[in-house]
Amino acid sequence: MIKPFLIALQFLTQFPIHFKILPNEQQIGQSLVYYPLVGVLIGSVLVTLSWLLSQAPPLVTAALLVTCWIVLTGALHLDGLADSADAWIGGMGDREKTLAIMKDPNCGSIGVVALVLIILLKFVALYSLVTVNEWIALLLAIILARTLIPLLFLTTPYVRGNHGLGSSLSTYQPRQWCIFIVVLTPVLILLLTGMLYFWLLIAAGITFFLLRTLMMRRLGGMTGDTTGALVEITETAVLLTAVVYLLE
To answer: Is the Cβ–Cβ distance between 247 and 184 less than 8 Å?
Structure first.
């Protein structure tokens, strides 16, 4: 099962992973199970960086964390957020027009605004958390956002048909293992951190419910771009919840 993990690592990060034999669709589908684990790795890198920068001014630390976060993930989900924002506004409620705009490689003004706002909100939230050395919230935001990806594929149709990576993930996902990991992750978080971070799980759950509802109403399902938007918005929602709840 090492290859599906490496597929997940290659897709979700910029780590230099190369395959002598290209993965097949079944292995790509199996990689969904490892998305939360990749979230642990991404979060661990950022928490380690924050520890190394513990003597730096909080503004500098927050800025470098956001920068490293974007570089480490290759802005993968930010791209999905920008495309989704452009499509949602430009589509004006029409399903086919929304899907067509998502396929356009160009980024419109709404997409740019969405990127600026999400990065600004992450930066402000990180700055607030840095000042009190609260790093668990950062780690949980990244893990929870990537746990919602298999949950989305479990509960939501993929509307692009037999095209792209999303089709392989949707068709060949190991449903029982995905259900197991989606249930296990929040249970482990509560067991390891106690009830102190309970509201962060609630924030992730509410974000998932609201965004999935929007996807179903507009598209009748999900796409790769809306999945990226889910990840970015969930991370931001969890960080902001941590600021409001943990720093009150």
So the answer is: no
Q: Residues 116-144: pLDDT tens digits?
A: 999 999 999 999 999 999 999 999 999 99
Distance, CA of 184 to CA of 226 (rounded, Å):
24
- Rounded CA-CA distance 189/209 in Å is 20
| Average pLDDT for the chain | 93
Give the pLDDT band of residue 19 (cuts 50, 70, 90). Answer: confident
The larger pLDDT score, comparing residue 199 to residue 248, is at 199
**DSSP per-residue string spanning 148-204:** HHHHHHHHS-BTT-S-HHHHHHHHH--HHHHHHHHHHHHHHHHHHHGGGGHHHHHHH
Residue 162 scores a pLDDT above 80: no
Cα–Cα distance, 53 to 64 (Å, whole number): 9
Exposure letters 157-181 (e unless 16+ CB within 10 A, then b): ebbbeeeeebbbbbebbbeeebeeb
Residue 1, amino acid: M
Higher pLDDT, 108 or 164: 108
Tell me the torsion sign for CA atoms 16, 222, 78, 148: negative
Cα-Cα-Cα-Cα torsion 82, 163, 13, 87, nearest 10 degrees, comes to: 10
Closest-CA residue to 212 (of 135, 154, 167): 154
Q: How far is the C-alpha of 229 from the C-alpha of 211, rounded, in Å? A: 9
Domain ranges of the chain: 57-246
Distance CA 25, CA 177 (A): 17
Mapped onto helix, strand or coil, the DSSP state of residue 88 is: helix
